[in-house]
Amino acid sequence: MAPIVRGGVRRRRPSLVARDRRGGGRPGGCPRHRRKALRRGSRDERRAVSGPAVAVTGSTGRLGGRVARRLAAAGIAQRLIVRDAARAPELPGADVAVATYADAAASRAALQGVETVLMVSGAESPDRMAEHRTFIDAAVAAGVRRIVYTSFFGAAPQATFTHARLHWETEEHLRASGLGYVALRDNLYLDFMTALMGKDGVIRGPAGDGRVAAVAQDDIADAAAAILRDPAGHDGHAYDLTGPEELTLTEVAAILSEHLGRQVRYLAETVEEAFASRAHYGAPGWEVEAWVSTYTAIAAGEMAGVTDDVPRLTGHPATSLAELLARSGPTGAS
């Protein structure tokens, strides 16, 4: 039976045959790991809910989902805060609350009883910063103690990459909020290197000979999960999460060529050429500027530099591009 949502929180009706979406349920009984149900208070006043001390946002996505699965595997109870309850992953020890970053009331209710929140940065949009502020303020109102935020490498008010400026603004709001906070400043996702090339096998962009220390999403998730399991001592820290190497896009293309068994090459564009070559997507100006500034930030050296934060937090070496491609299969998709 499909789940119902009341007051922004997911619950299930009892059924004769309990099933989960992946067939993990047992006929004639409850699923092995039934989620704890949350209940809504009156319309005007929400009751504080005792429950998991950790909440994870973005669990329907690549990064948040990885973190949630790691916490579940470690036996950590968690609350999954999602937009759509039907898409929330079925995990042992997890309950589900529905809220968006833009909805202050729903976010405040979803965060009741939570001490630490993994805040995966919101979807890129013109309203992103306002939504981040709303969610952080809701966390303060709900009595949350700390937020672990997925920021970006080189976050700064004058960063070349436009979204790195927004991440800095979010960090500033966290600092001013009075909450404990941890900033996970991850570099570009190593997992997306194959997506940089077009169907013709060409990576185009104004990156010049700049270098990028891209980091695997699995490594970011391992770092985040380690902090969420034992947050003591991390408050106020910003961690620069990188891979073990810094590569030019020409070097990235060579590694992709070797793995994919076909030629991949890097074509350096001017900034003007980069805007022109992306015009056919019909994307809004702010989005195209973000795409192009990804490359110009590389050219400016703002994505270079290898750190040891991944091995220090996770206890294992950071993943290289060749290692990631070797385990992700012949297409390079992870």
TrEMBL record:
CDD domains: TMR_SDR_a (cd05269). It comes from the Bacteria. InterPro entries: NAD(P)-bd_dom_sf, NmrA-like, NmrA-type_oxidoreductase. Residues 18-53 are annotated as: Disordered. Residues 54-275 form the NmrA-like domain. Residues 31-40 have a biased composition (Basic residues). This is SDR family oxidoreductase. The lineage of its organism: Bacteria, Bacillati, Actinomycetota, Actinomycetes, Micrococcales.
